[in-house]
Amino acid sequence: DAGVTQSPTHLIKTRGQQVTLRCSPKSGHDTVSWYQQALGQGPQFIFQYYEEEERQRGNFPDRFSGHQFPNYSSELNVNALLLGDSALYLCASSIYRAGETQYFGPGTRLLVL
Amino acid sequence: AQKVTQAQTEISVVEKEDVTLDCVYETRDTTYYLFWYKQPPSGELVFLIRRNSFDEQNEISGRYSWNFQKSTSSFNFTITASQVVDSAVYFCALSGKETSGSRLTFGEGTQLTVNP
After folding, report:
1. With an 8 Å Cβ cutoff, is B49 touching chain A?
2. Would the N or C end of chain A have less CB density within 10 A of its end CB?
């Protein structure tokens, strides 16, 4: 049983560019959440997708957008990259119910120069 | 608003010592869920345990044990007879049913180093 997978593992971009990160959830899961983890800090919730709709959103600007596909996989898009967007981006999958355990992927390390 | 505080930024122990990681939380929800995750240097968050607010029964699982006390809003995690492989950053996390659904609020993490 494959766990949560993310691609790419590492990415280097320059300021102003756009980036797309991808996530495939664990088998049997229908919900994908995205988190940003800056160096030395705890993960911060970006948003959550269920049934191809954004269900919850954290305190992130509109430059951060996402999508969920019919097979439950998801993309995170970030436009107009800033240096401060450099972080580890973590995807988590779960069942859509309050309090359900979220299982995380290995993350994508984004460096913005 | 919900908040998780892990006051211990770094802990260093010698192998075979017991170590307790502290977690204090704040929430106005009556139903909430608490989690511990481990993050080794590879970066992936590994789920360790989940507890809901109605289950204060503490548990021991192998070398791990958990102490959940609603009266003090604490959810502490103990590793008995620590091993070098336990070295990682440990995160405590909270989700509240009424206000946050399943989104997780994390603490800042505790870096545990187990020396041989």
Report:
1. no
2. N
CB atoms within 10 A of CB B5: 14
Cβ contact (<8 Å) for A41 and B108? yes
pLDDT in tens, B28-42: 999 999 999 999 998
Q: Is A1 exposed, middle or buried (0-12, 13-18, 19+ CB in 10 A)?
A: exposed
A33 closest CA partner among A18, A55, A61: A55
The first and second tokens of residue B99, run together, are 């206000």
Interface test with B, best of A102, A108, A109, A111 (most B CBs within 10 A): A102
DSSP E strand boundaries for chain A: 5-7, 10-13, 19-24, 31-37, 44-50, 53-57, 64-68, 74-78, 87-94, 103-104, 108-112
* Segment A75-94, tens digit of pLDDT: 999 999 999 999 999 999 99
